[in-house]
Specification:
five-stranded antiparallel sheet, Uridine Diphospho-n-acetylenolpyruvylglucosamine Reductase, domain 3, 19 strands, single chain, 16 helices, binds flavin-adenine dinucleotide, eight-stranded antiparallel sheet, Vanillyl-alcohol Oxidase, Chain A, domain 3
Length: 480
């Protein structure tokens, strides 16, 4: 069993045997599509075995294809269909649910060579891009023209837009601007039959037919391959006004988040770190954080001038009313950048303490105090260290297990299995979700059924069956 499925209510299927005629596929690609770059050496295949997900049973890809054009992607899909070889689409491999991890004998299609910005359209505030571009590079390209692409996973300096579309990635400013799905106006996809289809375009309003774009976004490469995306931009906002608030109890921080939500505040960032995370970040980055606080909130406004100051003032009042022990403003933009970077690097800081394993649960925002209390209890009951940080503004928390490097792995795993199950149970009990942004992938399938129920699962299976009847696209992921 993989660690991703603690005490599964519905056990995952055993790994499927290698499917299709791999050698036949490679010979056919060499003969019919010789311009497509194919990596077959063991090192390249091995480096595409895993993504960033821990403790996952993965497979060794047959080969790694690096297409440069949509036509090459479509040709690859048609050949895979002909030879019955499954496909794993892959961006940068930073995923945390095993969505782009290798499947034994499958062809991994890496989009890293398809990384061009195709058009920046000022009149419509859109950018059209290939999927392999790194999120930060896309942001930089549009920023050079005074524009802003909002979705910003903490991994934005390494993850790709294709991966973000695959997982429907969230991030630090999604509380105000929404997740990746909210930024997508148009897609070019390659279907499981190898057909190139365009969905949407540049229209802000478009309700013609079923909404296929939101279905594809977040489907983790199981319904189609994305070869181009038209994304929504904004005019670049002014520099942020930044508030830090420290709390004597985690409860008080949760109450502050709930109060801001209830008060209708929509800051661009509303992030939480608990004491363990604050100390880990401070140890690495020496930001002068209050190491004795039980929790810290980072609140940012990107409203201009006086409006930004007023928004942060309201956030400050909410924090103080909830019992903050200290609140302070960033002195300038440089300090604000440091603080934001510290939060982005929270996971890496926890990794300095031991073996860190990030979880990804979500709850309705009013239940954040309950969830934070439950995490503390679970850590105590299961004798595990959990550092919690996350996008508190959207109710999305990343409780992160930190294991002692000297502890035998098996002993640590056993305790974490129980704690993970308790975490998921608690999130579901509060009306939440077992994944806010990382996806089901290959690591939480047992819990998907539990969360959604049989009727919704049947609908999802019907969609998969209709769009990918031969089960070629990332088989076994999401639905199991
Ligand atoms: C330190 C750290 C911090 C992180 N912070 C965040 C965060 O704040 N928010 C967040 O949401 N995630 C976060 N993540 C998780 C991860 O970065 C995201 O899930 C990201 O979207 C993955 O992008 P990628 O390019 O690495 O894609 P991959 O991991 O390679 O793939 C992700 C999924 O997308 C599919 N896919 C990739 N390209 C395509 C394509 N062209 N067409 C169809 N399917 C495709 C893959 O099959 C897979 O299922 C973090 C990860 C790390 C390691």
């Amino acid at each position: 069993m993989t660690l991703g499925d603690p005490a599964p209510p519905h056990a995952p299927a055993t790994p499927a045997p290698v499917r299709g005629d791999g050698p036949g596929l490679l010979a056919a690609i060499a003969e019919r599509e010789p311009s497509i770059r194919i990596l077959v050496d063991p090192g390249a295949r091995e480096s595409h075995r895993r993504d960033e997900t821990a403790w996952l049973e993965t497979g060794l890809p047959l080969a790694v294809a690096e297409p440069a054009t949509t036509a090459q992607v479509a040709a690859l899909v048609r050949l895979c269909a002909e030879f019955g070889v499954p496909i794993v689409p892959r961006g940068a491999g930073t995923g945390l649910s095993g969505g782009s991890a290798g499947i034994e004998g499958a062809l991994t299609i890496s989009f890293m060579r398809m990384a061009r910005v195709l058009e920046i359209d000022h009149a419509n505030l859109t950018v059209t891009t290939q999927p392999g571009i790194v999120n930060a590079d896309l942001k930089a390209a549009v920023a050079a023209e005074g524009l802003f692409y909002a979705p910003d996973p903490a991994s934005y300096e390494t993850c790709t837009i294709g991966g973000n579309l695959g997982t429907n990635a969230g991030g630090l400013c999604c509380v105000k601007y929404g997740v990746t799905r909210d930024a997508v106006l148009g897609l070019e996809i390659v279907t499981a039959a190898g057909t190139v289809v365009r969905l949407g375009g540049k229209n802000i309003k478009d309700v013609a037919g079923y909404a296929l774009i939101p279905l594809i976004v977040g489907s983790q490469g199981t319904l189609a391959l994305v070869t181009e995306a038209t994304l929504r931009l904004r005019v670049a906002p002014p520099p942020h006004t930044t508030l830090l608030a420290f709390f004597p109890t985690i409860d008080a921080a949760g109450e502050a988040v709930a109060a801001m939500t209830m008060g209708g505040l929509v800051p661009v960032t509303l992030e939480l770190m608990d004491r363990i995370t604050v100390r880990a970040v401070d140890d690495v980055h020496h930001l002068g954080l209050d190491r004795d606080a039980a929790a810290m909130l980072l609140v940012e406004s990107d409203l201009p001038g006086a409006a930004g100051i007023a928004e942060i003032e309201q956030a400050d009042v909410a924090c103080q009313t909830a019992g903050a022990s200290m609140t302070m403003r960033a002195a300038d933009a440089v300090e604000a950048d440091w603080l934001r970077a510290g939060r982005r690097l929270a996971y890496r800081a926890l990794e300095e303490m031991g073996v860190a394993r990030m979880e990804d649960i979500g709850v309705p925002r009013s239940r954040i105090p309950d969830m934070l209390r439950a995490i503390e209890l679970i850590a105590a009951n299961h004798r595990v260290t959990i550092g919690t940080f996350g996008h508190a503004g959207d109710g999305n928390l990343h409780p992160t297990f930190v294991l002692d490097r000297n502890e035998p792995e098996a002993a640590g795993l056993e305790r974490i299995m129980g704690a993970k199950a308790a975490l998921y149970e608690a999130a579901l009990a509060f009306g939440g979700t077992v994944t806010g942004e990382h996806g089901i992938g290959a690591s939480r399938q047992a819990w998907l059924h539990r969360q959604r129920g049989e009727d919704a699962m049947a609908m999802m299976r019907a969609v998969k069956g209709a769009l990918d009847p031969a089960n070629l696209l990332n088989p076994g992921r999401v639905l199991g």
